[in-house]
Amino acid sequence: MTAALSSSQPLLSVQSLSFSLHNRLMVSNVSWTMNSGDCVSVVGPNGAGKTTLIRILCGLYRGYSGNVTLMGREVRDEPVEKLAKVVSLVPQRMEFLPCFTVSEFLELSGPKRGPSIQCLIGDLGDRLLPELSGGELQRVIIAGAVAQGAKLLLLDEPSSNLDPKGRSHVEQVLKICRDEMGISYILVTHDISLALRCCSRMLVMLNGESYWEGSTSESAVVSHLERAYGCGFVKLQHDSVVGSVVVPT
User: Which of the residues 117, 129, 197, 206 has an alpha carbon 20 to 30 A from that of 27?
Assistant: First the structure.
């Protein structure tokens, strides 16, 4: 799993993926690929299969049909410890916060340190994990995943339940990962504006299926979102905001 990618090999390839849980079809015939350096948002209404999809991608669910290859290797055939060196799942929150400083937490997370990690955590190094705000903690969790040396980050609603300042922290960290570190990530989110600003491509899921996949810069992206969510959206521009703000109407 640690071999380098060839120039023609996708980082991730999903082909005819289907998965059932407790006799319910959760993901149905999903196919798409992403290359190294890509940042993809996965959006769609509740129950669309978004979280199930990323749990498959990191090896938590293995009883699927079809193929999921990461760096050319079938995910269900790889031991968990090998997968963890390549793909890292970033949860919404940590259920247990040990009384470690941020620096101590990152030392335990993995060997990849240096200026890049410092950019992600800023001046939080000496702070204790339980003392961090939601947005600060999410920055540290993402930094921990990067410190592991993962080639692909899977972020499950990282801005959920955060206040505006916390969401801003998350957006800043994602942009550093993308623009300065060249790290690939898949962002599952209900924050459409975040998805458009932080990702170059979007996968819209509906009823477990891939409803639409394409560039976030496409003018038709709003119409695809409207059909998937069953409500109206409007895209707004403002001089103080880089990118677009998309809100339901």
Answer: 197
